[in-house]
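B., you asked whether I could sanity-check this one before it goes into the benchmark set. Here's the sequence:
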Amino acid sequence: MKRVSKFSLIFGIVFLSITKIYARPKTKIIVNGNDITDVAQSVNKDDRILVPIRFISEALNKEVNYIDYSKEVVISDVSGKMTLQIGSRLIELPNGEYILSDVPAQLINDRTYVPVRVIAESFNMAVSYDFPTNTVTIEDGTPNPDDSYQIQGLEDVARTIQNYTIIPGKNIASRIVKSNLFIVDPITKKGIINGKSTNLSISYTPIKAKDFSIILIASYDKNGNIVTGRGKKVSTKLVPEVSLEGVTEGAVVYEKAELMPKMNFIPVSLSYTVLDNNTGNAKKYENKDPFAPWQFEVPGGESRNVQVTINAIDIDGNNYISNPVNFEIQTSRRFALTGVKQNEVINKTVKLNVNRNFDVTSTRYYLGNAVGETLLKEKPYGEFIFNPSEDLNGSYYLRSEVTLPSGEILSSDKVNVTIKGGRRLLLQGVGPNAVITGDTELSYDSNLEAKSVKYIFNGPQSFTVTGIIGGKTKFSPANRKSGTYKIYAEIETNKGTLKSDVVSVKIHNEKIFGPAPIVPKNKFIEEFSPLAVEAMKKTGMAASIQMAQAILETGWGQYVPVDKYTGRISRNLFGIKGKGSAGSIISNTWEEYNGVLYRIDDYFRAYNTVNESWNDHKKLLLTKERYQIFRDVMFDYIRGAYAIRRAGYATDSGYPGKLIKIINDNNLRKLDEVSF
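And here's what the prediction gave me:
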């Protein structure tokens, strides 16, 4: 090491936040009664009074050394040493702990500057400032307790979740509105948020089984500026704990068992294994949320003695299995006819189905009245479209009946209805606002027997398609003029001609545009990570999860929605529907008409720039009430991935795992790092 005095390189600053001052007297520096103002010339930078610390250190009989290759400054005496690094906010104290400066150590005119409280906290000095005389006084003594900031609970080793208490002096406490806990690399001085708090308690939850890092707690003011912070090098030696809550050993549970996993670390994935203790058969339930309860039930009418274990996997791929919990679960049968309501008037077709929680081999639908009942349909399972016959009028009931694998027969409650008779013909295969761009199957449903069937189109040109009686008719729009048409079905019966309702559809025979690339795949991270990092700085939302969502939604930018008719690109990186800053583009979605799905146009947000798309996505997640559970943990990509799915952003149970895999495989977690 080289003495700073030899190279005149190392200086520090003592700076105090003050109101901007005009025509202030020269800052006076008093160290243990000695005026060193002449050699410790002050600097005013960004409305802060900065004073060099080199001479202060020497006046306090401390040695100052500079390590050139690491850009570190070491100030020491017989009691110990403090270490700081150019460009870093962290200052290592003689006791091995760290304090956090609200600005990094920096060079001004080839000299190094550090905050005044470094002196107070590092060497147990009393520091005061007299505004009228613009005088900084540093002397032996106890620092002002009102300016103190301590963390209770910091220890050298963490074997499980650690809970810490922030103890600020009253001058500091009045400025703090929130605190973050960071896991900081001791070498790079870069950290990732692990916990947040708006009170004086904060927790560290291990991610890795073994780790060595600085656990740093930073407190912020209402404007998001760092007030202060404190930390310590901690060796994580996790004793992993995985347990199952919500049910106890030997319990009897009725209907559903709400199982809650509990871990002392943050897992990336979790599954349950349920063993039937009577048969020895086991089933694994994967892609479960590690941070939310899971409801388990057995088929209705059954009672089973089961054993449940949890398998949690950490970020390094280590598997941790809970102790098994054995319990009995009994579930009642739930069985009801759906699709109609009690006392409903039926004057059109209805879609009947059954709601049940057990297996069946046969399902039957019946229509009856005081005279008797008729079997309408028998099938293994599934819905039935009921189209009452022309002459069916009056009061009836509908019910369903099922046969279980055991041969037992169950009947639902009767649903009383009033049926209005009449001739009915339904057009199927297309519906209101359908878009026909290729071969389409047209069909019909009627309560009269058809002798012939045809589908009539009226629009830019009029034509008729001859249909298949009782079946589906393939219609090709080729050689037809594009435009809007009115279409209806028509059948000939023994009682005359019957027409369906008329619906409006669109035939489009011109080019259809599909999703388009917006950036080369290998440039996606380079192109969009600055947007994610900037958004993280403003909102606190992990940049990694923003990137993973954009990658997943667009296939690395290769499948960005475009207008299917014009080819106009949406610049919509998150698949959000509706109207954006540049209006909308038209794509496809599905609707149902007369019991059959068909394709229609749908509108997705379009933007003038990808920046607008990025900001709009953040606005959605930051303002919609349902995403509050995501906002609570959006600083952490693992917990955030599960929370965003839980909030309803996606229905795919594998969505969180896909996001996490993208982040881990592409080291996107580095985007979440904060430099200290």
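One thing to flag: The two ends are 24 Å apart (CA to CA). Otherwise nothing jumped out at me.
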